[in-house]
Amino acid sequence: MTKQNLLRWYKFKGALQREDWLMPAYVGIDKEGIIRHLSTQAPVEGVALEVIDGYALPGFQNGHSHAFQYAMAGTAESHPAGTEDDFWSWREAMYGTALSVNPDQAEAIAAMLYAEMVRQGYTHVAEFHYLHHDKSGKPYANLAEMGERMVSAAQTAGIRITLIPVFYQKGGFGKAPEDRQRRFISGSTDSYLKLLEASRTAVRSYAAASLGLSVHSLRAVELGDIVSTFEQGPKDLPFHLHVAEQKKEVADCLAYTNERPMEWVLNHLPVNHRFNLVHSTHLDDDEVSRLAKTGAQVVLCPSTEGNLGDGIFRMKEYTQLGGRWTIGTDSHIGINPMEELRMIDYRQRLVTHRRNTFQGDAAHYLINEAITSGRVAMGKEVQEHFAPGLPLDAVVFKASSHLVETAHARNLSAVLVYTSDSSRILGTMVGGNWVVRDQHHQRGQLIKADFLKAMMDVRKE
Ligand SMILES: [Zn+2]
Description:
Blueprint lengths: L7 E9 L4 E2 L2 E5 L5 E5 L9 E10 L1 E6 L21 H14 L2 H18 L1 E8 L15 H13 L2 E6 L23 H15 L5 E3 L1 E2 L8 H10 L6 E5 L3 H11 L3 H8 L6 E5 L5 H8 L4 E4 L1 H6 L7 H6 L3 E4 L9 H16 L9 H16 L16 E5 L3 H4 L6 H8 L5 E6 L2 E5 L2 E2 L2 H17 L1
Parallel strand pairs: 1-5, 6-7, 7-8, 8-9, 10-11, 11-12, 12-13, 13-14
Antiparallel strand pairs: 1-2, 1-3, 3-4, 5-15, 15-16, 16-17, 17-18
The structure holds zinc ion.
C-alpha cells in the first residue's frame, strides 16, 4: 500500500490561500487530521476522494470571548424612557449573570456558544476567563475548576480553545474590589500565577487546548502588579489585555496616572507581537502611530463594541501604518465572523464617507489579517492558510448558492464576506472532521438539551 493510500482525501472547488484561491484543491490528511498533501493536481488514480461542492476558507479564530455572557445575549436591549442606559449599567446586568452560574451551568452555556461558533465558521476560541471562584467568592478546591469547565465545553463542541485565565484584582483605579466582583478576584500577582499554573493542568486534558496570560485591564489590576505579572509570567504565552474601551476609562486613567491607557501600556510594558490589546477604541494620534509599529494585535469586537456603544477604533489610519489586528465576539451578541469583518469596513466607510477603507481586494485582506493575526493571538505563528503540517480547519461555503455560483473568481472572497450569512455555509471542519454539516452539529441535540436546562435553572434562581 502506498503512503498516499493511508491518507483521507478531499477535493474542494477551491481553498483560499494568502495570495489567491487554489482551484480545485486536493487535500490529503493523515489520521490526526493534519494536512500531508495540498495541490491543484489530483492524487494518483484509485484513491477514494470525498468531493465537496464548496469553497474552503481557513477556520476563523475568535480572539476574545467571555462565554458566560452568552446567557444574557439579547436580554439587555430594552431602555425605558428617562433611564440612563450605558456601558456601566449593562455591566450591572452582566454582574448579575456572573454571580448566578454554577460550574455545570457555565459549562453548558459555553458548550452551546462554542457549538454555535463552529456552525458560523470559528474553529478556535480565546476564552478570556475571569469567573474563577464559587458564588461566595471562595476559590474552588481545584483553583481552575471553572477554567477546566471551559476546556471541557470546547471539547464537547469540537472547537480548539486557548484558555486565558485573567488576573482581576480591583474595583477601578485605586479602588478595592466590589462585593459583586468576588468571583473574579486574585489578590496578588503570586495568587494569580498559582491560578495560571492550575489552568495549565486544566488544558492538558484536551489536545486542542492551550494557555494564555492576561490581566483584565488597567482599571482592574494595580499598575505595578501588571508589570510584575508580565515579567514573572511565562515568556512563551500570548498576553491579552482590555485597553481603552470606554471614554470614562480614559478619563479615570488620566486622572490616576497622568497617562492615557494605551500611552501607559506603551510606556511601561515591552509591547510586541505577544500582546493582544482588546478594543483599543479611544486612541490619540500618537498612540495610533506608536501602537502600529509594535507588531501587537488589536482584537476588535465590532458587534459587541457597537452594542455597548463603545466607539470606533481608528482602523484606516492604523492599517495604513501597518498595524495588525484580529477579531473576537466578546459578549456574543453576534457570533458571525463575516458580520464582524463587514462592520470593521462599514464603520470606517460611515465615518470617512469613502468606500475604499482598504486598498485592493478588501475581503481577501480582511480574511488574511483576521486569520494570520488571529493565530498569533492564540500563540501560533503560521503564515499560509492551508499547508502541509497544519490541521485541516476550514469553514466551507456552498458553491451552489446563487451569488457564489455566478461569481468570477476575482470577486469570490468579496461575495462570501459582504453578502453571505450562515445559511450559505456547507459545514465546518476541525482537524479534518466535519463538526458541523448542513447546519447540524455532531452533538447538537445533547448540547442544546444541556443548555436549555442550565438556562431554566439560572433564570429561576
Ligand atoms: Zn472583554
